[in-house]
């Protein structure tokens, strides 16, 4: 049994069906937490809860402005919680992810899985503000995605493409 229960909130119907996403989300979250060496905090009974919000560019732009001072949409936002029964919240913007996947010539679900892994790593304390942190986070992302049979997402990335969470 997974150490995490995922609560999904669909705010727009543009997203693939829940059936398509459920297994992928479970596997991506488990892979991300495994490569990060995460375990539930001491005294917290499994499973912990993770909230995933599947939304659109307009909603995420509002959140990005309010929480990060950036008045534009982004692909993913992560909101970690203090150690306890709630791991945190991860919010995804459909249009941005769809556009990036097309620009980077990646399957939508592969790109979504990458962003989910990325978001989970943020929830357990990883960041990419400095180069050494970014390198460590990218290594963990590649390792988690390899467990899912997804190719290295950085192998094809061009400087013209947006940085994750920008």
From TrEMBL:
Pfam families: YbeY. Gene3D superfamilies: Metalloproteases ('zincins'), catalytic domain. InterPro entries: MetalPrtase_cat_dom_sf_prd (IPR023091), YbeY (IPR002036), YbeY_CS (IPR020549). It is an enzyme of class 3 (hydrolase). Its cofactor is Zn(2+). Single strand-specific metallo-endoribonuclease involved in late-stage 70S ribosome quality control and in maturation of the 3' terminus of the 16S rRNA. Belongs to the endoribonuclease YbeY family. This is Endoribonuclease YbeY. It comes from Afifella marina DSM 2698.
């Amino acid at each position: 049994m997974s150490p995490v229960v995922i609560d999904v909130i669909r705010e727009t119907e543009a997203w693939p069906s829940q059936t398509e996403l459920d297994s992928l989300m479970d596997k991506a979250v488990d892979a991300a937490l495994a490569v990060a060496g995460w375990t539930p905090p001491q005294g917290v009974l499994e499973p912990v809860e993770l909230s995933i919000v599947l939304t659109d560019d307009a909603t995420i732009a509002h959140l990005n402005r309010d929480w990060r001072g950036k008045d534009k949409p982004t692909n993913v936002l992560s909101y970690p919680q203090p150690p306890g029964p709630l791991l945190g919240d991860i919010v995804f913007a459909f249009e941005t992810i769809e556009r990036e996947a097309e620009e980077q010539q990646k399957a939508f679900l592969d790109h979504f899985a990458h962003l989910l892994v990325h978001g989970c790593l943020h929830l357990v304390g990883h960041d990419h503000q400095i180069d050494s942190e970014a390198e460590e986070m990218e290594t963990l992302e590649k390792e988690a995605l390899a467990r899912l049979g997804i190719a290295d997402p950085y192998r094809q990335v061009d400087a013209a493409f947006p940085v994750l969470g920008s």
